[in-house]
């Protein structure tokens, strides 16, 4: 497989589509086991999670629903920095099992923020499924329940993950190549 270049940066193949497919099926089995009879609501966080959510959702047996949200960033007051507000969740989640589907958990700030906001709507439980997880970058107390791949803190693209909006359509996951000195 070939390297790819975006914005002058070179990326090399890292996780192949076949491995992704296999792992998504395994996660589907785990969720099916945990959510039997619960009619879970999957909440796909746009934009990056859409390929993963699409594949994972179709592994789910029995009744399940899916909704899509976008996180709107805006500048908060002085010290709070960037706050992300949930846009587009019209479904009633009170008393339900909610499975948030993310592309990647890096520092965990995004997912923590989202889980805190969803918790205010009183679901019976919230689980987090993420295709990728960078445990060494984590600096919040939210730990994903279903993880596709734990990876070192390197920059990756493909299968939904972007560099300035590009590369989401790659079928495999690529990692930024180390620059030779
Ligand atoms: P966090 O809030 O630091 O956990 O990061 C959340 C967001 O940063 C993710 O949803 C991605 O949009 C983006 N991100 C983090 N790491 C990467 C990466 O390696 N490639 C592309 N986007 C990333
Ligand atoms: Mg994301």
Architecture overview:
The protein is built from 3 helices and 10 strands. It is α/β, with parallel strands linked by helices and 181 residues long. It starts with a strand and ends in a 5-residue tail after the last strand. The strands form 2 sheets. The chain has a 6-stranded mixed sheet with strand order 5-4-3-6-7-8. It has a 4-stranded antiparallel sheet with strand order 1-2-10-9. The structure holds inosinic acid and magnesium ion (MG). Magnesium ion (MG) binds at residues 45, 48, 102-103.
Short summary of the structure?
By secondary structure, the chain is an alpha/beta fold.
Fraction in helix: 10-25%
Q: Number of helical runs?
A: 3
Q: List how many beta strands DSSP finds.
A: 10
User: For the CA atoms, what is the radius of gyration?
Assistant: 17 Å
Beta-strand content bin:
25-35%
Structural class computed from helices and strand pairing: alpha/beta
Please outline the major beta sheet.
Answer: 6 strands, mixed
């Amino acid at each position: 497989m070939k390297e790819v270049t975006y914005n002058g940066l070179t990326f090399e193949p890292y996780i192949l589509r076949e491995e992704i497919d296999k792992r998504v099926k395994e996660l589907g089995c785990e969720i099916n086991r945990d959510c039997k009879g619960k009619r879970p609501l999957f909440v796909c966080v746009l934009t990056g999670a859409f390929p993963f959510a699409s594949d994972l959702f179709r592994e789910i047996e029995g009744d399940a629903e899916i909704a899509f949200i976008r996180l709107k960033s805006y500048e908060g007051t002085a010290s709070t920095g960037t706050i992300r507000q949930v846009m587009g969740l019209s479904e009633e989640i009170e008393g339900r099992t909610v499975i948030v589907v993310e592309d990647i958990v890096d520092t965990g700030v995004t997912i923590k923020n989202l889980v805190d906001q969803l918790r205010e709507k009183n679901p019976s439980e919230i689980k987090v499924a993420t295709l990728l997880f960078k445990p060494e970058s984590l600096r919040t107390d939210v730990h994903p329940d279903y993880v596709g791949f734990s990876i070192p803190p390197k920059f990756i693209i493909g299968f939904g993950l972007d560099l300035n909006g590009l590369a989401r359509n790659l079928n495999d996951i690529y990692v930024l190549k180390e620059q030779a000195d």
